[in-house]
């Protein structure tokens, strides 16, 4: 990580100028640090906005904010209360601070994103994708239309997010690993599955497609490059140790986690190894992101990815470089850091003036955050704006003539794609002969979802040739299109297989080529390739034939085990809160070195259940970076009252089996119709859905509640000091 000068922004100075907007008297902006040359302003605060989550701007600069009621609710309660809503914020005097708010639409479950497009607002709210239209522009939607559903959810926020407008004119969204069952308007089932996915559809909700999928827990947001490539944030991309990541999503790609391999094998077409990430940040709970467009912040920021981290209260800037035909992180640095543990950024977006808007949801959210121990609805969040300060010695930068030409060509390509006419297709195909490989790559990508492309055999043949020539990126996206439209003829199979022998082939390109071979259905030619001397060719043929022997899984009527939402734990009584606060006040500072020894002492045995830097048990959450996201009071509560809340993935359940037995523990693994339940992998039992009579979320933690009784106040302070010190780099 690059080091640089920091300046602490004393954001309270903006309160005076914000008085006219009715900022709550008790609201204090969070102190935020940004690099030298940037500064932070308050853009909106309570009571104008409370518990904002994600946002989007319309073409007039009005900000639509998906907001919450500040309560942690189960699916049942969300559907009863419908507490979610979308606000429209306006800056009526153009000073960069929002001063007017209307509720654009209410009676929603749990909205996690919105998109303004063509005069309507598209919203992903737990359970479905919606479209809302305000016909008279009074700031309140008059029409409500459910476009796509249904998507499973529990209230823990690991479900549907978005949507996002692709350069191809399609609507994209992310869905977490709670399952889905989608039917078209006639009631015909078109997709059913358990795993997380990136979906897309037309703007009317038709033609729903899966772009990629996998066992990861919670893909959150995506952005598009000018070439049409998709980058996105995802939580629990890896499960042990946990990895929250930035990913370059590949068409037809299948991603981790390996602990959900049964779902991966049964639901998806596999092309070999699972695909991987661009950056693994560790246990940080990534959320919204944006790709900086244009040069308003200088050429050094053009194309940078800004990513919010809920747990750590910071925003990181990732500068990408090429790695064969995917991306590699050339530079990762903290861009915004809060010194307050209750600052939880959930989204970031670029305004038309080049500034960045940062959404801080506040302290209310608990049941979906793996390190939130205490809900703090009194911390109501806010919206901040980051600006770059102009300086007289800043060099003026502008794109080169070549870059300008490429950008113009790419813009025209996507315009042709959205027009979707026969004339547009002819013009788009001409771009395949452009001298610039990036322009050719963009043109090929724009063909991916063009309707009925399989009726153009000459184009399919041309794309088949491109799989064996051109740059790695051209070869990869050409294989995508061939896979999408099953476009490889039998006589082209040998040449496509031979493309696997390129010395510069990447995992991503290999995946695309094997996927195109599978979708071709050319069994006879693939059987011949089993005898190839080059193992890269024979192995690919074997994988393709194996997948072709599997029954189709695009639509499945398998039974999915319905597991209830985890208990939120027992709410602390007033006397317990008083005990907690009194003990915190009485404790000395503590010695981290002594606390480290106590962590593995027989009286605490913390290391039997918790890992630190890869050492220890896996019964409870990994504590390697717990000090970055949890305050001293939070840590003390989890020791004194472990049943007050449960870390995500470690909630206890009790199961009554069909033969009358009672089994308790945490869910260690989940298959298509079974779970593994127990204290750890050595003491786990596997239960199928037919064996389970009843499954209930428990409100009693498996962590012993009398742990602190074995320690003196000095020792307890030492243990807390050690946990607070666990704030290692990502």
From TrEMBL:
InterPro entries noted in UniProt: 6-blade_b-propeller_TolB-like (IPR011042), ARM-like (IPR011989), ARM-type_fold (IPR016024), Cyt_c-like_dom (IPR009056), Cyt_c-like_dom_sf (IPR036909), DUF7133 (IPR055557), Haem-bd_dom_put (IPR013427), Membrane-bound_put_N (IPR013428)
Keywords assigned by UniProt, alphabetized: Heme, Iron, Metal-binding, Signal
Signal sequence extent: 1-19
One Pfam assignment: DUF7133
GO-annotated molecular function: electron transfer activity; heme binding; metal ion binding
Residues in Cytochrome c domain copies: 590-727
Cross-referenced PANTHER family: LARGE, MULTIFUNCTIONAL SECRETED PROTEIN, LARGE, MULTIFUNCTIONAL SECRETED PROTEIN-RELATED
NCBIfam families from the UniProt entry: CxxCH_TIGR02603 (TIGR02603), Piru_Ver_Nterm (TIGR02604)
Name of the molecule in the record: Cytochrome c domain-containing protein
Taxonomic source organism: Blastopirellula marina
């Amino acid at each position: 990580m690059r080091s640089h000068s920091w300046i602490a922004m004393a954001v309270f100075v903006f309160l005076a100028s914000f008085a006219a907007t009715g900022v709550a008297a008790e609201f204090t902006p969070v102190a935020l640090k940004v690099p030298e040359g940037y500064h932070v302003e308050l853009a909106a605060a309570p009571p104008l906005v409370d518990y904002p989550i994600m946002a989007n701007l319309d073409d007039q600069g009005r900000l639509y904010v998906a907001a919450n009621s500040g309560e942690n609710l189960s699916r049942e309660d969300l559907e009863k209360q419908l507490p979610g809503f979308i606000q429209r914020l306006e800056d009526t005097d153009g000073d960069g601070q929002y001063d007017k708010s209307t509720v654009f639409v209410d009676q929603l479950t749990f909205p996690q994103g919105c998109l303004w497009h063509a005069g309507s607002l598209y919203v992903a709210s737990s359970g479905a994708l919606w479209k809302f239209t305000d016909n008279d522009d009074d700031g309140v939607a008059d029409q409500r239309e459910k476009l796509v559903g249904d998507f499973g959810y529990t209230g823990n926020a690991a479900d549907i997010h978005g949507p996002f407008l692709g350069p191809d004119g399609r609507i994209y969204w992310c869905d977490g690993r709670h399952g889905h069952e989608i039917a078209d308007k006639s009631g015909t089932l078109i997709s059913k599955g358990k795993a997380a996915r990136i979906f897309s559809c037309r703007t009317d909700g038709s033609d729903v497609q899966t772009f990629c999928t996998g066992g990861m827990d919670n893909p959150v947001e995506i952005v598009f490059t000018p070439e049409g490539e998709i980058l996105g944030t995802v939580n629990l991309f890896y499960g042990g140790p946990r990895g929250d990541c930035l990913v370059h999503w590949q068409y037809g790609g299948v991603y981790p986690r390996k602990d959900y391999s049964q779902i991966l094998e049964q639901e998806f077409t596999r092309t070999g190894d699972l695909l991987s990430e661009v950056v693994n940040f560790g246990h940080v709970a990534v959320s919204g992101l944006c790709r900086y467009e244009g040069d308003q912040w200088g050429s050094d920021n053009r194309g940078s990815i800004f990513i919010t981290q809920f747990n750590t209260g910071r925003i990181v800037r990732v500068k990408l470089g090429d790695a064969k035909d995917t991306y590699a992180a050339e530079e990762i640095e903290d861009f915004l850091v809060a010194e307050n543990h209750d600052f939880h950024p959930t989204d970031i977006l670029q305004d038309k003036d080049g500034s960045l808007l940062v959404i801080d949801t506040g302290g209310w959210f608990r049941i979906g955050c793996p390190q939130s121990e205490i809900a703090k609805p009194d911390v109501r969040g806010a919206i901040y704006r980051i600006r770059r300060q102009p300086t007289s010695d800043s060099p003026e930068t502008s794109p080169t003539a070549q870059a300008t030409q490429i950008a113009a060509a790419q813009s025209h390509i996507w315009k042709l794609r959205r027009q979707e006419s026969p004339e547009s297709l002819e013009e788009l195909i001409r771009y395949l002969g452009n001298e610039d490989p990036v322009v050719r790559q963009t043109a090929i990508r724009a063909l991916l979802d063009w309707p009925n492309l399989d009726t153009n055999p000459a184009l399919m043949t041309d794309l088949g040739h491109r799989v064996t020539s051109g740059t790695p990126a051209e070869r990869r996206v050409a294989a995508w299109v061939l896979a999408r439209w099953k476009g490889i003829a039998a006589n082209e199979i040998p040449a496509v297989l031979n493309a696997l022998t390129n010395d510069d082939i990447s995992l991503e390109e290999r995946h695309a080529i094997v996927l195109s071979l599978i979708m071709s259905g050319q069994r006879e030619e693939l059987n011949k390739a089993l005898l190839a001397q080059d193992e890269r060719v024979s192995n690919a043929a074997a994988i393709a034939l194996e997948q072709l022997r599997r029954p189709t899984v695009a639509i499945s009527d398998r039974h999915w085990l319905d597991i209830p939402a985890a208990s939120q734990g027992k709410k602390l009584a007033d006397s317990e809160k008083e005990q907690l606060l009194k003990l915190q006040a009485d404790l000395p500072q503590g010695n981290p070195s002594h606390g480290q020894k106590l962590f593995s002492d027989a009286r605490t045995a913390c290391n039997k259940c918790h890992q630190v830097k890869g050492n220890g048990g896996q019964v409870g959450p990994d504590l390697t970076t717990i000090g970055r996201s949890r305050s001293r009071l939070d840590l003390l509560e989890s020791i004194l009252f472990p049943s007050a809340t449960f870390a995500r993935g470690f909630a206890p359940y009790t199961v009554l089996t069909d033969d009358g037995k009672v089994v308790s523990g945490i869910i260690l693994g989940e298959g298509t119709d079974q779970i593994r339940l127990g204290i750890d992998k050595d003491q786990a039992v596997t239960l199928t859905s037919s064996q389970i009579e009843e499954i209930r979320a428990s409100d009693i933690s498996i962590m012993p509640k009398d742990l602190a009784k074995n320690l003196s106040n000095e020792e307890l302070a030492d243990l807390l000091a050690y946990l607070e010190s666990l704030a290692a780099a990502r």
